[in-house]
Structures are given as structure tokens and as C-alpha cells.
Amino acid sequence: MLKIGIIGGGPSALFIYKRIVENAKPGLEVVIFEKGDRPGAGMPYSKEGANDEHITNVSGNEIPDLVIPVADWVRSVPKDTLDKFNIDANRFNEYKTLPRLLFGQYLTDQFKLLQQQGRDKGIATEMRFNTEVEDVIDDPGSAKVRVEVANKRPAEFDRVVICTGHLWPKQHEGRVRGYFDSPYPPSKLAFSANHAVAIRGSSLTAIDAIRTLARYNGDFSYENEKLVYQAKEGSPDFRIVMHSRNGLLPALRFHLEDSHLGKQTILSPEDIRYVRDENGGFLPLDYIFDKNFKEGLAKHDPEFYELVRDMNLEEFVSMIMEKREKTDAFVLLSREYAEAEKSIRNRESIYWKEMLGVLSFTMNYPAKYFPAEDMLRLQRVLMPLISVVIAYVPQSSAKELLAMHQAGKLSIIAVGENNEIEPQDGGGIIYRYQDEGKEARADYYPTFVDCIGQPHLSYEEIPFKSLLSGRAVSPAKLYFKNEEAGFKEINEGNEKVRRDRDGKLYLLVPGITINDSFQAVDEYNALNERLYIMAVPFIGGYNPDYSGLDFGEEASRSIIKALLKN
């Protein structure tokens, strides 16, 4: 029987293990390497990624099926734990969100229940906690993969799934005073700051940093049923300035008609094969846009569909972004808060936003078949809109942002494409950008937090260097359908456009090459049936919007189908 190694014990590993328990025969052996001290939570739902104030952006009904539904589990949690998070078990239901640390406890409990199911099925499972994997070595000769950890003999496996989760490389943090390459772990932001703090980005990652800094420099309270914010005595000059490329805040959570974002609409291999045969081996982005966005609109919101039916991708994005950019970011946030409250209260979707979420989810799997020019359109045109609209900011976060803004403690600046951050020898940074009047600005901040979210990391940055030296993995790339488009990119200075041995132009995209089963593809274009990559920073080139539990659940389905084949 197979011996399987899983590197990482967070949410991705949880779904992989769940699939193993559901599909494997007795006698299977599984070893899970986890650098923390408990399974399931990973970075986002543990102290590595959250404090008590951080909230999930999904409700119980949006979470993929595990062993016990969230609402039922909450009723089993000790009262003192629920009191800590101000949760009343009798009033909690599947449409509510949870604090991230409490949700981490839920995932840990589900992992433990799955382990019991595994034992009952005759699957031997070993959890190795507080264990950092140093290297992964693929050996085609023995058809084994060796996993190396410090001060121990390497362990050999027939199959290895890399589920290492988020990775936050440090560039200046620790060397430049007041410079933070990420807001994680958030405990490092628990300090008084009697000055302006610069934040790069306006995503959920930025909101994480804001929620922490706000609490250590002020207090939230209610006055006449309205949330207000007051700076602490020792931090009268505290304020936060968000720096966003387009000056936009992310949109709020609303009621989803399909809480699992159109899983049934994912293109089948047969559909993809047919469309590729009709398009010279490529899958056009416009086909996905029509199939997984416009068709859903036509069914669920005919009025909005009539508005956009004749628009191409660029025209649609331009219309939506122009409306958002014309409105003050906090005015828009207030309006969308009211809209989202109504949506959740009446359990009625905002369909164009939901269809955009479906589009984002369903395009992940076939994105590796896009021509390079379509991937560039996706990166430059569609993803900036998707990242704003389907952030699903919790209502409580939006209320805090509005309260801080009204108190004069939170603002946002549109810095455009060509902004620059200069770390200073004496600490802090200078933020260089052009203001709305095209005037050059250079603002000094003693504290800077980079909050652009999980970066898509390059092939060379994978931490297991033997995979690189052994050529077991290869950089992800997409070929141009029209070489003129490739030459245009070269002339405009795009250093990611390269030429292969046959002279064909391709676009280098983040991460490594994987197939539809998330199997690594080596430098000789041969797939590796021993090695599966589910580490989110290293699959972003072929899975442009890879985050979320739904993605983990769906990806695990493809992995286990191939892993347990034969």
C-alpha cells in the first residue's frame, strides 16, 4: 500500500486528508509534517495569522462540508470560550461569521475527528508537530520521494503532497526600524504609534493590520447605537494612511445564492478539450467570461445582463471601475454596507458580484490553457476588479473602518502604478508617488506595513532546493497565440517574455508548472506522479485566484483522484 507524506498540516492538508479517508483502502500510511503544534488551523486561523479581533470573511453555510457543521460545533464549545468572543450559541446560525482563531479551533477539531475516522478505516496516520521540513528530494530511480527534517533521518514516501500554505518572505523587516514586510504574525503590530502609519494596499490583509493597530492606539465604543473611535491618551497623533494603486476599498460580504460559487459550472475536461481544439490548443479568456459570468447573469439578473450583454471584458471592467473610482472610497463603503446588510437580511444575492465570484473560482483550473496575451489581460484588467469586489469584507470590519475615518484616523491615497517605497537608514520609509494633480509627492512615515497580500512567488523561491537542482520542477509559462503580441510586450520592456529552444515566445508566470491534477511537471515536460503541489504561493501562475477553503476542497478532489489511481 502507498505511503503518503503531506508537508504542512493546515486547511489544505485537512482537505487532502479528508479525501484520503473517504477514498483510500485499509493499510494506507500517512505522515503529516506540521511546523506548528496543532493541525487544521494553518497560518490564517492561528496566532501566526490572527488575533482575537480578526474575523473570517465566510459564513458557516459557505464552508465546504467537513465532519460536523459549524453551527452544530459552536453549540459544543465551552461557554467561557464563546464569551471571550461575544458569541451566544443559541443565537448563532450558519449565516454568521466566526472569529478566525475560533474557526481555527473548529478546523483543528475536524482534523482530529477525521483522524479517528482514518483509524476506523485502517489508515495509519502520524502527525509530526513542531517539525520544519528542510528539503524534498525526488528520486526517479527508486520511485520514492525523500523528506528531510533537521536532526532526523530522511523519511521516504511513494507520494508527497506539498501543502505548505502562506509564505511571507522578509526583505527589510528586522533591518529597517519600523518596516514590516507583512502584518503577520499580527502580534508584532501590538504597539503604540503616536504618528502616521503607512499601509501599502487596501485588501483584507490591510484590514487585518488596521484592526490590530487600531486597538493598541485607541478604543471603539457605541454612541447612540453608532460605532465611534477615539485615540488613546498616549497616541493622539496616531492615524493610518492606506496607499492603494487605484484608491479603492474592498467590497463587503453579501448573501450568496450559491454559497459554494458555482462548483457545478466548472468546465469539464471534455469541454476544455473541445474549446481548445477549436482555438489552436488555447482556451480563450473571453469564452470563460461569457460562459461563467454572462450566462449566469442572463439567468439570475436579466436586467443587468441587458446592460452588459454586448460588452467585452475590458468594457465591462471599465464601466464598473469608473463608477467606483468616481465615488469617494468611504462614501462607497458606507453605501455598500447598507446594500450588503439588506442582501443578508433578505437573503437576496447581488448577482453581478456573485457571478464575478463564480468567474474567479471557475477560471482557476483552466487558466493554464490561456494564451499568454489573455493571461496578461487577466492580470492587468480583470484581477484588479476581482480583488476588490470578491474580497467579502465582514460587516464588523467595515463598521470599524468607517468609524476610524469619521474620527480622522484613517484615510486612503491613490498612488497609481509608479509608486516607490524607499526604506530609510534611520528607520521608516519615504513613499514616493504622484497625487491626483500629477504632482510628485514624497511622504515620510516612521512606520510602514506592506499589506498587498500573499505574493505570487517565483519558481526559484521554492524552499526545497533539491527540487530545483534535481530539475523535478519547472517554471510555469504560457505561450503566445499571436507572436506579434509577444513582440509588443518585449518592445515595451516586459522582461517576463522569453523565447524557448524552438524560438517560440512565452510568458513566464509565477510559480511552477503543474497539470490538472496538481502534479509537478519537470524541466523535460514529464509529469511526476510522485509529487503534488498545493502550496498556494507556488501555483499562482496557473491558478490566478487560488485562495479560500472552496479552492482547497476542489483542488484536493483532483489530487486524490490521481494520487490513488490504480
Description:
- The chain is an alpha/beta fold and 566 residues long.
- It has four domains: 3-167 and 513-563, FAD/NAD(P)-binding domain; 179-250 and 398-450, 3-Layer(bba) Sandwich (FAD/NAD(P)-binding domain), CATH 3.50.50; 263-389, no CATH class; 475-510, no CATH class.
- It has helices at 11-23, 70-74, 79-84, 100-120, 204-217, 269-278, 285-300, 302-308, 313-326, 329-346, 351-362, 372-389, 395-406, 465-469, 483-491, 549-563; strands spanning 3-7, 29-33, 124-128, 133-139, 144-149, 155-157, 159-162, 179-180, 196-200, 218-223, 226-231, 239-244, 410-414, 420-423, 429-434, 440-445, 447-450, 475-479, 497-499, 505-512, 519-521, 527-533.
- The strands form six sheets. A six-stranded mixed β-sheet has the order 3-2-1-7-22-21.
- The longest helix has 21 residues, at 100-120.
- It is globular and about 65 Å long.
- The N and C termini lie close together (11 Å).
Give a topology summary.
Elements: E1 3-7, H1 11-23, E2 29-33, H2 70-74, H3 79-84, H4 100-120, E3 124-128, E4 133-139, E5 144-149, E6 155-157, E7 159-162, E8 179-180, E9 196-200, H5 204-217, E10 218-223, E11 226-231, E12 239-244, H6 269-278, H7 285-300, H8 302-308, H9 313-326, H10 329-346, H11 351-362, H12 372-389, H13 395-406, E13 410-414, E14 420-423, E15 429-434, E16 440-445, E17 447-450, H14 465-469, E18 475-479, H15 483-491, E19 497-499, E20 505-512, E21 519-521, E22 527-533, H16 549-563
Parallel strand pairs: 1-2, 1-7, 2-3, 7-22, 8-17, 9-12, 9-17, 12-13
Antiparallel strand pairs: 4-5, 5-6, 10-11, 14-15, 15-16, 18-20, 19-20, 21-22
